[in-house]
Amino acid sequence: MDSQFLLGTGLSRTFGGIRAVAGVDVSIAPRDLLCVIGPNGAGKSSLVGLLSGAITPGSGELYLDGERMTGRPMHAFCRRGVVRKFQGTNTFLTMTVRDNLMVAGLGVAAYRATPMPDPDAVLEEVGLSGQACELASHLPHGARQWLEIGMAIMCQPALLLLDEPAAGLSAKDAQRLVRLIHRLRERCAVLAIEHDLDFVQSLACETWVMHRGEVVRRGSYAEIAADEEIRRIYLGRGATHAAH
Amino acid sequence: MAKLWEAGSCSPCQRSTGSSMQVMGGPVCEGKMTGILNVASYACVLAMIALGLAIVFGMMDIVNLAHAEWVTIGAYALAVTQAVGGQQAFWLALFVAPAVGAFLGWCLERFIIRLLYDRPLDTLLATYAISLILQKVLELIFGTQPMLVYAPFSGAVPVPGGSYPAYRIFVIGVALTVTAGCWLLFARTRFGTQLRAVIQHPAMAEAAGIDTGRLNRIAFCGGAALASLAGVLVAPMVSVESHLGVSWLAKAFFVIVLGGIGSIAGSILGSAVIGTAETLLSYRIDPSLASAVVLVLSIVVIRFRPQGLIPGFSAAHQLLGKG
Amino acid sequence: MSGKHAGCLRLWFSQPALGPRDVSPLLMWIAAVAAVVLVPLLAGPWLLAMVRDALVMGILALSYDLLWGRAGVLTLGHTTFLGLGAYGFAVMTVQFGQAPLTGVAVGVLCAAGVAAVIGYFLLFAGVRLHFFAIISLAVLIVAQQLAVSWQSVTGGDTGILGIPGLSFSVDGHAFDLSGPRTSWYTVAAILLAATGLIWLVCRSHYGKVLNAIATNEWRAKACGYHTPLHLLLVFVASAALAAVAGVLMAACSGVVAPDVFSPLLATEVILWVAIGGRGRIGGPVVAAVALTLLRQAVSSYSTDGWPLMLGGLFLACVLFMPNGLRLGGCVVVARRAGRAIRGRPPVQPVHRVGHAQEKR
Question: Are residues C314 and C291 in contact, defined by beta-carbon separation less than 8 angstroms?
């Protein structure tokens, strides 16, 4: 059995009276691929925030490779391989695309004393080779999503947290992303939050459903999609077909 | 204690005239009661000045570094009113000065601040430039010699342990009333609720139909008026010259650091703490060391409790960093 | 582990290959070197001393450009470090009779130490922006007060007089750098060296990192950077460089007074960087030299004129020229001649994302 890369027990976080995450147990192995779905406000983003160190858990413990990481700052998580691709776009707007990637890669590479991934290769992988010298602020939204993904790759992740990666992407781009994620899986674990259920279906991986801060179901996508209860959570009473 | 905070060159001439709160802070008569009254008078005036700064910071995300100049403007307004109308014109000045302050505050907001709404840090710099200009302009208009102002009445009131100047009791009374009035406005009226909504979440308040722009302007002018009123009250106790306000700016700022942004209760508490600390310390040690101690205290507080002792749930808290 | 650290430093500071963008800075630097060599041959001692003092201000501007222009840390009290350097040098050489080199070391270490303590306390707690700026102003004001009241050491209001010029001895050979020409060459050499060094740092990977932290600190943290540490390093380096300027100022003029801790001068420093262009290195230096000379000119006519002009310039710059003036020789000449500066039409400033972040 693979040793667990990330282990979280009883993770909870409350924001002003609302339980965003309530007693979630997480265990991710080095080559896992999993998706987290759930209605709005279910706590998916908060969970990712907890796992990446952006938010400190109110209670519960978090371990990376056996090392206790509860309450450590975000950059410590990144250096140990938990890299988050953000939901909106949060790039360095005044710098060029290539510089964005360089900066993303330098920190971790310097810390670990390992060579940085080649920025040009990553540009190729995300399809931004033509825009290497453009300012990030000039990129259209879809391209900026790819830049974010590229920056996440440059951080040499051991666990890649994707926060709504398919948002704003065309169907063709979404499929490209699915192929990229399957390629990335050879190097790292991937956890994706998504609303787009077609995308989740294409990934064909283990899926968790969150509802009101708790993980209510874990299973393959096929099992989840067939589950009446899940459909009810997502769509409310009386739904008869899967959401799109 | 003005000499602690004077900007610009430190020439002997300026220092000897900058007696400021030294008059206020020095013991009139030894005794616990006089000590308490000294602290109270200082803290109350400080609260009036800091209130405007705190609310504007909380609502508009901007620090108005020129805020303390309105104290100077209030003091000069008193001087001019009394030069024209005699000693009893003090009562007139109590209304004239805030009006002048509010008007000038409106001008500042209209012509400068409004251009910089999307650049909060540049507002800091712009208001800093304005304070430099204002100080110089006041100096050019009124000269470098301190102006004459008179308290409306003199005499002392017997208190346990000795006697205390009646005018300072008056100052405490006015400042307390005004501050209490502001708190009531803030906490108990519909208008105050709208103000608090803007402080907590401007976008949401706007979406709920509150005219945030108008409220911002009202708050800005209100803060300016408060500062000018404080200037009138303070003027008979200090030397009225162009650097009067500078000593208050840093202290008002420390009040915000301690008391949190956008919170009236916080400003009052912060003023009490700073007022007590400075007054008590200046009895024992050199005033410049006293201000150094207060500075260190503020740095320590800001490091360990950046949201202040009573946070005001302001969106501006993000400005405290945590980034 | 030293191999790891050496590799780390190599990675941070590795220089990209020389490209077309490097041509004009290199040319300007070479032109500056030429000017530095030629000017003493043409100018008399009084003019030389005046421009030399302006060059010292250039070093101060450089230090602030590194701090604010490049790393995005706004402070209102940068002249604290100028004063600490000047007073450290003065106290060591005059009160304690030490060699000038010791004075230099003490001055610089003093400023670096204060910056390290304040920086560690505040930056590591996440204090930024307004609060950091205003606390730096308060530190400056307190420093001025302490300089006045600590009479036994600092000479109080009058300050310290009779500060010796720079000199040092190597193997029994004494080098006296206090003469008009030698002091010019010393100051200019330090300015050129510092400019060159900072230019090299800024074009290396580390410059990009600093730029990223200034643009979007939250994102930089998410990329694995311990941002408070980097900001602290820059803060301390900037303070040290400002202290060097302070030492040079004290050594060249022979006197230091509490008005070196001047909020007015601190405002000018901000203006130099704002006009010269934040992060443009050469621009702020030129702006500093030009505006210092302008200040001398204006002040000799009227003492009230300069603060008003400074305030007005500052305001205009903040309102209308958020990205600084284009560095053009003609503009510099126009300023030097005291003609009105033509402002550009209101520009939309390049947007620096401040704090896109989540609640903790």
Answer: no
This prediction's pTM: 0.85
State CA A24 to chain mean position distance. Answer: 17
Question: What is the Cα–Cα distance from A186 to C204, expressed in whole angstroms?
Answer: 33
Q: Please spell the DSSP secondary structure of C263-322, one letter per residue.
A: HHHHHHHHHHHHHH-TT-THHHHHHHHHHHHHHHHHHHH-TTHHHHHHHHHHHHHHHH-T
pLDDT tens digits, one per residue of C43-81: 888 888 899 999 999 999 999 999 998 999 999 999 999
Closest Cα of chain A to C360: distance in Å?
Answer: 5
Cβ of A91 and C219 within 8 Å?
yes
Q: Is A23 helix (H, G, I), strand (E, B) or coil?
A: strand
Of B115, B133, B306, the CB nearest to C125: B306
Q: How far is CA C187 from CA C56, C245, C261, C265, C317, in A?
A: 7, 9, 21, 20, 29
Q: Is A5 helix (H, G, I), strand (E, B) or coil?
A: coil
Chain C residues with CB-CB distance to B299 below 8 A = 118, 121-122, 135
For residue A152, the model assigns a pLDDT of 92
Task: Check if CATH label 3.40.50.300 holds for domain A30-55+73-235.
Answer: yes
Q: Which residues of B touch C318 (CB under 8 A)?
A: 116, 122, 125-126, 129
Which residue type occupies A198?
D
- Contact indicator for C59, C194 with CB cutoff of 8 Å: yes
Task: Give C72→chain A minimum CA distance, Å.
Answer: 13
Cβ contacts of C233 on chain A, cutoff 8 Å: none
| Contact between C224 and A86 using a beta-carbon 8 Å cutoff | no
The CA-atom distances, in angstroms, between C181 and each of C38, C43, C48, C195 are 11, 10, 8, 21
Alpha carbon dihedral B118, B123, B126, B131, in 10-degree steps, equals: 150
Residue C41 CA to residue C149 CA, distance in Å, equals 44
Alpha-carbon distances, residue A197 vs A231, A234, B3 (angstroms): 12, 11, 68
In tens, the pLDDT along B25-65 reads: 334 445 778 888 888 989 999 999 998 888 888 777 788 88
What count of other Cβ atoms lies within 10 Å of the Cβ of residue C142?
24
Distance separating alpha carbons of residues C280 and C225, to the nearest angstrom? 24
* Residue C296 vs residues C42, C289, C302: alpha-carbon distances, Å: 21, 11, 10
Tally Cβ neighbours within 10 Å of residue A183: 10
Q: Is the pLDDT of residue B321 over 60?
A: no
Looking at this protein, which amino acid is placed at residue A114?
T
Kindly report which listed range (A152-156, B181-185, B288-292, C225-229) carries the lowest average pLDDT score: B288-292
Q: Where are the domains of chain A?
A: 30-55+73-235
Find the closest chain C residue to A96 by CA distance: C208
- Spans of all domains in chain B: 27-241+314-318
Looking at beta carbons, which residues of chain C come within 8 Å of A103?
A: 208-209, 211-212, 220, 223
CA A104 to chain C, closest CA, distance in angstroms equals: 5
**ipTM value for the complex:** 0.88
